[in-house]
Amino acid sequence: MRRTCLFPHSTKEVFMKEREKAKTLLDQLYAMESSPDYVLSSPEAAVIQLLPFRKKKTENFVVLFVDNKNRMICKKVVAKGTVDQIPVFPREIIRHAILKQASGIILGHNHPGGASEPSKQDRELTSKIKRIAMELGIRVLDHIIICDSGHFSFQENGYL
Predict the structure, then answer these.
(1) How many Å apart are CA 100 and CA 152, to the nearest integer?
(2) Domain limits of the chain?
(3) What does the buried/exposed string (b/e) look like for 90-102 if buried means 16 or more CB atoms within 10 Å of the residue's CB?
(4) Domain MPN spans what residues (predicted)?
(5) Helices and strands, counts by H and E, the chain
(6) By CB neighbour count within 10 A (0-12 exposed, 13-18 middle, 19+ buried), where does 11 fall?
(7) Confidence category of residue 1, pLDDT binned at 50, 70, 90
(8) How far is the C-alpha of 64 from the C-alpha of 1, rounded, in Å?
């Protein structure tokens, strides 16, 4: 049985080249994200890890877990919400940090509405998580809010 190609010969070649480029970029991204030496040394380095969430239509709360040299251990979505709110449980964040043997965490979430400024609830939640984490020897390095138009770092703006 003869197979018919959906693409003319030249289009198929272009498609294959573009697919190979995309695969190479993805391989580089995966290598960067899973590298044990990927140090989150600035808010911008953390923002790179949160970029996939900036265009989400609902809020996602993400935690970046780091070791004592701020090398990323892993990234985990700990809660998903609606367009304007998200149920976040500090005990779940701390539980994951302990299980991952993380000595620090970077909190992050997206604002689908487009404004990166933190709400009163964002500030209160960050304070609560920081207080609980400090009691257990876990550092809260930053809380980053990301949206289409930019980001807000609690650390850069003196909120931590």
Answers:
(1) 26
(2) 1-34, 43-153
(3) eeebbebbeebeb
(4) 38-160
(5) 4, 5
(6) exposed
(7) low
(8) 51
Dihedral of the CA atoms 38, 89, 135, 76 (nearest 10)? -10
Amino acid at 115: A
Would you say 131 and 95 are in contact if contact means Cβ atoms under 8 Å apart? no
Q: Which class is domain 43-153?
A: alpha beta
Q: What confidence tens digit (pLDDT) does each residue in 19-56 have?
A: 888 777 776 666 655 555 688 989 999 999 999 999 99
Instruction: Give the pLDDT band (50/70/90) at residue 11.
Output: confident
What is the side-by-side order of every strand in the sheet holding 139-147?
72-80, 60-66, 104-110, 139-147, 150-153
Whole-angstrom Cα distance, residue 51 to residue 33? 12
Tokens of 41: 């040394």
**What is the spatial distance between Cα 18 and Cα 24, in angstroms, rounded to a whole number?**
10
